[in-house]
Amino acid sequence: MTKMENDKRENLYVDPDAGKVPVRRYAADWLGPKTTAAGTEESYERIMRLHVLPRPGKKTISQVTARTWRSCTHAGAGRARSPTR
Asked: How far apart are CA 52 and CA 31, in angstroms?
C-alpha cells in the first residue's frame, strides 16, 4: 500500500488541488442551499458580501492566512461601530 492510499484510508490525505479553489467560489458553494432559517441565510450572505469577499475574495484558499481573516474581522468590526456609516 502506498503512503497516499494509507493516508486516504486513515482520513489524513489532503488533495493538493484543494487549496486552489478561489475564496469567492468556495463561499458561493458554501452559501448554496441550506437548511437554516431565512434570517440566518441572509446574515451569512451579508457577512460574506461585506466582510469576507471584499478582501480575500480573489485569493485562493491556500493563499488565505490567519492574518487575512483577522483583517476581515477587524475591518468589519470597525465598520459596525463607525457612526458615519
From this structure: 13
